[in-house]
């Protein structure tokens, strides 16, 4: 049984890691599934996002990191996924998560969505905020692992 935590992870943040840690209290193995979506204006390419997440998670023996190129429901069917993990921050996440879960359930009702609530200190943390701050040299040290902070600096120096 595969348990997945899907998302864009552009880039992976301490908020994502908080949700992952919580899910590992419940499940033995979790796959971080990085979407190859093109609808979002991502800063990092799918390959870069994959590499960064792999590097950050290299010491987590029971966590796999993968890219996916299809609709999430198709991946779920193909890999016999039983649980999809998502994170909840402020109230604003609820509507979007509810809509996604309901839409996916309509197409495939063979799995369950599970939501973990983040730590208070990450309640306003998002990849977008991290990118905005990093673009103007703001302090993001408590928001992302140091490796990600370095990658963001490199990226914005290149632009
Ligand atoms: P997506 O584009 O699918 O929303 P993200 O990478 O932005 O991908 O987020 C993936 C999941 O992680 C979502 O369920 C999101 O709500 C959750 N998440 C992101 N940041 C945080 C955070 N700071 N605390 C808790 N959950 C978070």
Q: Provide the low-confidence segments as ranges.
A: none
In CATH terms, the superfamily is HUPs
Helix % is 40-55%
Q: How are the strands of the largest sheet arranged?
A: 3-2-1-4-5
Distance between the termini: 42 Å
Textual characterization of the structure:
With 159 residues, this protein is of the alpha/beta class. The protein has a single domain, classed as HUPs (Rossmann fold, 3-Layer(aba) Sandwich). 42% of the residues lie in helices and 20% in strands. It contains six helices and five strands; from the N terminus they run E-H-E-H-E-H-E-H-E-H-H. The protein has a five-stranded parallel β-sheet. Helix 2 links the parallel strand 2 and strand 3. The longest helix has 16 residues. The model has no long low-confidence stretch (mean pLDDT 94). Bound molecules: adenosine-5'-diphosphate (ADP). Adenosine-5'-diphosphate (ADP) binds next to helix 1 and strand 4.
How do you describe this structure in short?
With about 160 residues, this protein is an alpha/beta fold. It has helices at about 15-25, 45-55, 70-80, 90-105, 125-135, 145-159; strands at about 1-5, 30-35, 65-70, 80-90, 110-115. The chain has a single domain (about 1-159), classed as Rossmann fold, CATH 3.40.50.
Protein traits:
159 residues; alpha/beta; Rossmann fold; five-stranded parallel sheet; 6 helices; 5 strands; 42% helix; globular; binds adenosine-5'-diphosphate
């Amino acid at each position: 049984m595969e348990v997945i935590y899907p998302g864009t992870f552009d880039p992976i943040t301490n908020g994502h890691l908080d949700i992952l840690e919580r899910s590992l209290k419940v499940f033995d193995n979790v796959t971080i599934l990085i979407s190859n979506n093109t609808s979002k204006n991502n800063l990092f390419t799918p390959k870069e996002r994959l590499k960064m997440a792999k590097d950050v998670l290299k010491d987590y023996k029971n966590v796999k990191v993968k890219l996916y190129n299809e609709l999430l429901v198709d991946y779920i069917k193909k890999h016999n996924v039983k649980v999809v993990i998502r994170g909840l921050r402020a109230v604003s996440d609820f509507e979007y998560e509810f809509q996604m879960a309901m839409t996916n359930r309509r197409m495939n009702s063979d799995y369950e969505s599970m939501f973990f609530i983040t730590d208070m200190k990450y309640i306003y943390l998002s990849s977008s905020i991290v990118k905005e701050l990093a673009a103007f040299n703001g302090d993001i040290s408590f928001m992302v692992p140091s490796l990600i902070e370095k990658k963001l600096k490199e990226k914005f120096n290149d632009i």
